[in-house]
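During the second half of the funding period, the structural biology subgroup turned its attention to how the target accommodates small molecules. The most pressing case was zinc ion, which had performed well in the primary screen but for which no bound structure existed. We therefore specified the complex as follows and requested a full 3D prediction, including the ligand pose.
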Amino acid sequence: MKALLLSQYKNLEVVDLPTPTPGPGEVLVQVAACGICGSDVHGYDGSTGRRIPPVVMGHEAAGAIAAVGPEVSGFAVGDRVTFDSTVYCGACDYCAKGEVNLCNNRQVIGVSCAEFRRAGAFAEYVIIPARIVYRLPEALSFEEAAMLEAVSVALHGVRVSELEGGETALVIGAGMIGLLLLQAARVAGCSRVFVADIDATRLKLAADLGADETVQASGAGLLHEVLRLTDGRGVDVVFEAVGRNETVAGAIDCVRKGGKVALVGNIAPEVSLPLQKVVSRQIRLQGSCASSGEYPEAIALISSGKIRVGQLITAVAPLGDGPSWFQRLYDREPNLMKIVLDPRGNGIQP
Ligand SMILES: [Zn+2]
Ligand SMILES: [Zn+2]
């Protein structure tokens, strides 16, 4: 089979690899769409240590079942499916509680690190444990399904924030996850959702996707605008979807006393914490990691149009164009959202 191999850091090439055979409890998926994740781009140069070459990356994927291994029930060849990016063990204390994102033995499809390595879906075929596979409704295209991981991450960020409905919300960062958090906050019943970013193009998209107000500012300008929009009170909840010093500080500034800040972005490994603001204003900081069980809800919300992902897909390209798309993302070309690679058919250079 053809596969996009990270043969060494910053070097991707399409190579021939043996098509794998599913073992007990596994299925073989013929990949029809696989999104390039920010974590793939960050891992590509070795900076995260999570994509040790050689590795086939790719964990935001969908396709059709091509073979079913022994001891698998409920799936058949030809079924249109997607799968969770997290391979959880199903046996540890966290898995028992349904917190599969915190699994003690957690692995991720398309990741190779010191503890494990798992081939991913930038290939014609990928092996997936059947317990993390979900069937796709006909209404959902493979490209849309490649967005399910990102949608699940946004739904999880909202879920762990334990909203009651009627909240005012601010999303900081109008990238992929921020634009999905906007929509997820709306689905969760937030009465007004504001989105802040410094990029006007992204804010335009936020407005198209239903933001009540967009704020092109950070720091003092952002705080000023948020206070104006909330009669001096601050918002009930902030979803921080960047993860830098300035944006985390902005989130803590803009939330009301007793409010919640969901920390979803984590570009920087460390930020400074305005401790006295957090303590004296009794702000709840809530980390949110990946997702745990939100896939079915994400499938339903995209299918019903309550969460829209079409505008977030910048391009669907053949696997052979993968190296150049990775380079463009790595070079931070503006206005690129999700790039989806389709390993079927043409465009693969031998
Ligand atoms: Zn991802
Ligand atoms: Zn587990």
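Two results from this model are relevant to the next phase. Residues 2-147+309-342 form a domain with the Quinone Oxidoreductase; Chain A, domain 1 fold (CATH 3.90.180.10). The mean pLDDT is 96.
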